[in-house]
Design brief:
eight-stranded parallel beta sheet, 13 strands, Ribosomal Protein L25, Chain P, 24% strand, alpha/beta, five-stranded mixed beta sheet, Alpha/beta knot, disordered N terminus, elongated, 274 residues, 30% helix
Amino acid sequence: MRPPARALPGAGGCRSGDRTLAVRRVKASTRLPRFFLESPRGLGVGELVAIEGPACHQIGRVLRLRSGQRVVLLDGSGGAGEAELVSVGSERALARVLQAAPCAPEPAISVTLLAAVLKGERQDWLVQKAVELGVARVVPLLTERGVATANGAKPERWRRIAREAAEQCERAVVPEVADPVSLKVVSWTGAKALACTEREGRPLPALLADGDRELALLVGPEGGWTEAEHEWLADRGAIDASLGPRILRAETAALAALSTVMSHLSWRLETASR
């Protein structure tokens, strides 16, 4: 007696599961590069759009794209369009908008991250990851125990990193990155302010409410807030928030706090609005 026939592989010699994986790989490989326009303008279907500045450099010099290839253009205010490159020059590229393009929705809660300035690449990394997590605004703080100074700050570099991070994670807007400012002059009018502290205060998730629509997360330097800074924050209504029993690096604390807010609150608000 012959053994039962083995199931034939799917089309192209691939099993069904392999075909699914192949399709996913094709989709991932065909994701179009995204660029924010230097001079925001409408992205109506059929419009011919000029691309200049860093986006043009990225298109022509870094990615070496050519006429006929497609990109996604973003106007910085929530609009996005899939476009075909018509010409690519050293300082200017032209693209024709073919259709609207999808963008990830912005978080249902607006979070401003006010965090002590860090040195070198750690600050770059903090800005990049905060944008990926959905922050609305980043305010670098100058604090008494901070190791960075205003003279060593690079706000233009941080804004470029924020723009590139927004392109990469498919956001439709670029979060604002402010110039470094002293803690003693910042404000958070209309927002609930939560000051991350070392082992003090209530757990951060317990301080989040469904009615929150604007939050200010304050994160100090690695040495923590001074007593005077802590008092200043408390006098202005900031609530102590604990991130747990461990001592965290400043960048870890900032991203842990932001991740907690987004996972506990933003997702619930977005789900409830559907």
